[in-house]
Amino acid sequence: MASENVYVEHCKGINDLDKVILRENRGVSAEVYLYGGQVTSWKNERREQLLFLSSKAIFQPLKAIRGGIPICFPQFGNIDSLEQHGFARNRLWSVDPDPPPCSSHASARAFVDLILTHSEEELKIWPHRFEFRLRVALSPAGDLMLTSRIRNTNTDGKSFTFTFAYHTYFSVSDISEVRVEGLETLDYLDNLQNRERFTEQGDALTFESEVDKIYLSTPTKIAILDHERKRTFELRKDGLPDAVVWNPWDKKAKAMADFGDEEYKHMLCVEAACVEKPITLKPGEEWKGRQEISAVPSSYCSGHIDPRRVTFTG
Ligand SMILES: O=P(O)(O)OC[C@H]1O[C@@H](O)[C@H](O)[C@@H](O)[C@@H]1O
Q: Is residue 244 assigned to a domain?
C-alpha cells in the first residue's frame, strides 16, 4: 500500500470501489477512482464541487461513470471498431506505490499515479501492448493537473495508433448563462452532422441547444465563463490539439438512463483531445498529453482571457 500521508488517502468509495483522495491547503481536494482511472470530484477551498457528476451515475463495472473526467483511450467516439470512447474508462487501474517525483511540480505533494496496461482480454480487441501512466495532481492553489504518458510496449515491432480525450464534465450554474472563449473562428467537425467540417462564428460560444463539436487545432488555453456564479474555468492543455464541446440538451438527456432529465442545464463538457490527427507510436515510443484546470473568480468583465494570468505551469 502506498505510504499514507495527509495529502494522499487510499480508501473505499461508492459500492466499495477503491478511490484516492488528494488534499491540499485550505480544504481543496480531488478524488479519483481506480475504476476507469476516473476523477469524480474536484473541490475548491469553499468545498464547492467544480465537476459535474450525475445523480444517476452508475459506479458499477463495466459501465462508465457519468461525470468527472472519463479517460477516452484508445479511441475517442465511435468511429472505429472499439466500444464508444475505448476501454480505458471501463477497466480497473492500479496504483503505482512508488511513483517518480513530480518534475514540473517540485512542490506537488498531492498526487497519485494510476497505471493501466493491456490485458489478455484487451489484446483480443486491440492487439497492442501498452503502458498508460496517468498522474493526477492537485496543486497547493487547487489547480487539477492530469498527465497521461502512453508507451508502446509491443515486442513484435508493431506501431499502434490511437485517439484520446480527457472527457471533462464542468459543473455550471445554468448552461444558458455560460460562455466559452478561445474557440471562436476555428474549424470544427459537427458530430450532429456526420462530422462535417464547419467554421465557428467570430464570438464566444453560447448554448441554446444540443451541441457536439470537435474543434480543431485549438489554442493552449480555453475559458469557460459561468456568469451566474461569477466563476471562470481555465483549461490549459499540452499535446492535445483538439477540443470537444458537448451538451446533450433535453432530448438526449431523457434518453440517458444514467443522467437526470434536467441535468443538462448544470453541466458542459469541454474535452482536451487528440481526434483529427490520431497518434502513432513505434515500440518504445511514449506520448504525453496534459491538461490543467483552474477555477477563478470571473474578473474578465470584458470577456477576454488575461494572458498574464493564464500560464501553463506544467
Ligand atoms: O455516453 P458516452 O459514451 O459517455 O458519450 C457521451 C458523449 O461524449 C462526447 O464526447 C461525444 O462527442 C458525444 O457524441 C457523446 O454522446
A: yes
